[in-house]
Design a protein that fits this description.
CATH class: Alpha Beta
Radius of gyration: 14 Å
Strand content: 15-25%
Number of strands: 4
Helix content: 40-55%
Largest sheet: 4 strands, mixed
Strand order of the largest sheet: 1-4-2-3
CATH architecture: Alpha-Beta Complex
Number of helices: 5
Order of helices and strands: HHEHHEEHE
Shape: globular
Distance between the termini: 31 Å
């Protein structure tokens, strides 16, 4: 199994995507604060299976076009962008603010693979 390549930092367009998602969950000012905190957060590493469990989201399979696209990137050796995570204030789960399809692709490829993440 080929190791998965990762960019050293999330791509610039990941942060507006995270903001757009987070604004569905919390007021805009809270979402903006979360994104500021994500930008400043250090890189952490968590296994794909643990991220999925903490987010309490279903694992999308290869039939999802975005998961398939990310699996193809893995197979041809293209680098993936790290994931952006936000801890809920109740401490009961984590939100995948950006990178859900990448997490699912890695979970399908090798659930024990550590994924670089920024978490706020």
């Amino acid at each position: 199994m080929k190791p998965i390549k990762w960019l050293s930092a999330p791509e610039d367009h990941d942060y507006p995507a995270a903001l757009s998602y987070l604004m569905l969950l919390v007021p805009q000012t809270d979402a903006e604060t979360a994104v500021i905190n994500l930008r400043a957060a250090p890189m952490s590493y968590f296994k794909a299976k643990d991220i999925c469990r903490a987010a309490r989201l279903p694992i999308l399979g290869v039939e999802n076009s975005h998961v398939a696209k990310n699996l193809n990137k893995i197979s041809v050796g293209k680098s993936l962008s790290p994931i952006l995570l936000v801890r809920r204030t109740d401490g009961c789960r984590v939100e995948i603010a950006d990178g859900y399809h990448r997490v699912c692709a890695v979970e399908c490829y090798d659930e024990d693979t550590p994924i670089p993440c920024k978490i706020a």
